[in-house]
Amino acid sequence: MVSVNNDLIYAIAALVCAILLSYALTPLVRVLAFKIKAIDVPKDDRRMHKKPTPLIGGLAIFTAFAVTCLFFCDYSKELFVILGGGLLMVLVGIFDDIFSMNAWVKLFCQLAVAALTALGGIKIDRIFIGGRYLDLGAWSIPVTIFWIAALTNATNIIDGLDGLSCGVSTISSISVLFVIIIQGGSFSSALLTLILIGACLGFLPSNRNPAKIFMGDTGALFLGYTLSVIAVQGMFKLHTVISVIVPLIIFALPLADTLFAIVRRLLAGKSPFSADRGHLHHRLIDMGFTQKESVKILYTICGILGLVAIFMCNNIFDKYNVLKSVIIAVIALAFFFTYIVIFKNPSSRWHTGLLGEKPKEEPQKTEKEDKAE
Questions:
Q1: Which of 2, 222, 316, 342 has the greatest number of CB atoms lying within 10 Å of its CB?
Q2: CA gap 18, 174 in Å, rounded
Q3: What distance in Å separates the CA atoms of residue 175 and residue 210, rounded to the nearest whole number?
Q4: Is this model's pTM higher than 0.85 or not?
Q5: What are the φ and ψ backbone dihedral angles of 161, each rounded to 5 degrees?
Q6: CB atoms near residue 363 (< 10 Å)
């Protein structure tokens, strides 16, 4: 007789429910977007799509996530703090998708939601770094606010191509889920993460190239916020030893893109919130990759980083194996970039410069570009 763990069946049911809800709600949200004129019109060279495309697709992701959580999760203060904070982020995102909020006002709203979350009990009390625990004490709330705001903005900024931010969030969520399971985290944290994965998977078919709908700031802010608080609950609060480096590696792609964007703009004498065409996905497009190829490349990088983070779980790998894992990951990334830049992409500038071939013109398909942060 086949014996299956009840928790596994319950988790799979929650995953399927989130996928189906998100998939079914997306066309309805698309109709709503047209009615309320939440439309992204391509008006500069940063935007990759060629025709007006509806926004607020994140409303389908949030609704699927919230409804599934209310059906499958145990009611707790933490759950309602997460859902309440997510709802506030969604409202901010919808307003921005329709009226284009001032960047400083949007940041203030994000900080306010982050502060309410930290005051609600979801905060980073201590971190494991340098071989020992560091109790944050009074700094726990400011550090938590900074973490939530940073990851929320990073997820928003990387939302520049069809399916990019949603796909990266899905891959990062899967990495978080494995870390929680491997490190013996709570079932509630794992279930929340699995439901978020399902909500993203249900939306992706309508968001991949060519996108029928963009998730907009509505989805990007919600996903960034939810990922950040799940990381706090599922990784920073683990009773087992886990380095602060692990979550930073999992979310390294969007965080690094955001950091480089801020430094780049400040060095140019511009506001850190000024929009430009210098993000990672822009660089890949300028090298000659198609938009689908660029998304796949960034997916792969995110996946490799997730594997490195999983390998660094201390209760499975000792420090020598962790070091070997990092070295292997660096070598893998080096070979990966060499392959895609020199051999896989015949129209890249480097490749054509080496071999003297004429770049091929490739049609650009509709894509979602990031709004002004």
A1: 222
A2: 15
A3: 27
A4: no
A5: -135, 160
A6: 5
Determine the Cα–Cα distance for residues 100 and 80; give it in Å rounded to an integer. 28
Up-side HSE of residue 63: CA atoms within 13 Å toward CB?
Answer: 17
Residue 251's CB is within 10 A of a number of other CB atoms, namely: 28
In single-letter form, the type of residue at position 367 comes to: E
b/e string for 142-155 if b means 16 or more Cβ within 10 A? ebbbebbbbbbbbb
Are 220 and 56 in contact, with CB atoms under 8 Å apart? no
pLDDT in tens, 61-87: 999 999 999 999 989 999 999 999 999
Q: Are 310 and 179 in contact (CB under 8 A)?
A: yes
154-212, pLDDT tens digit by residue?
A: 998 888 888 899 999 999 999 999 988 888 778 889 999 999 999 999 999 999 888 88
User: What distance in Å separates the CA atoms of residue 269 and residue 279, rounded to the nearest whole number?
Assistant: 17
Q: Show the CA angle centred on residue 226, arms to residues 225 and 228, nearest 5°.
A: 65
CA–CA separation, 224 and 151 (whole Å): 5
DSSP per-residue letters across 202-237: HHHHHHSSSPS---HHHHHHHHHHHHHHHHIIIIIT
Mean model confidence pLDDT for the chain: 81
pLDDT recorded at residue 339:
59
Q: What is the per-residue pLDDT for 353?
A: 39
The residues, ordered by sequence, that sit 6+ positions from 22 with a Cβ below 8 Å of its Cβ are 60, 61, 63, 64, 65, 198, 199, 200, 201, 202, 203
Q: Note the pLDDT tens digit of each residue in 98-145.
A: 888 888 899 999 999 999 999 998 988 877 666 677 788 888 899 999
**pLDDT the model gives residue 268:** 77
- Smallest Cα–Cα separation from 251: which of 311, 308, 212? 308
- For the chain, report the end-to-end CA distance as a whole number of angstroms: 56
The Cα 212–Cα 221 span in angstroms is 20
* pLDDT at res. 359: 43
Q: Give exposure, 300-337, as e/b (b: 16+ Cβ within 10 Å).
A: ebbbbbbbbbbbbbeeeeeeeebeebeeebeeeeeeee
Q: How far apart are CA 302 and CA 304, in angstroms?
A: 6
Q: How far are the Cα atoms of 27, 48, 94 from residue 368, in angstroms, in the given order? A: 17, 6, 16
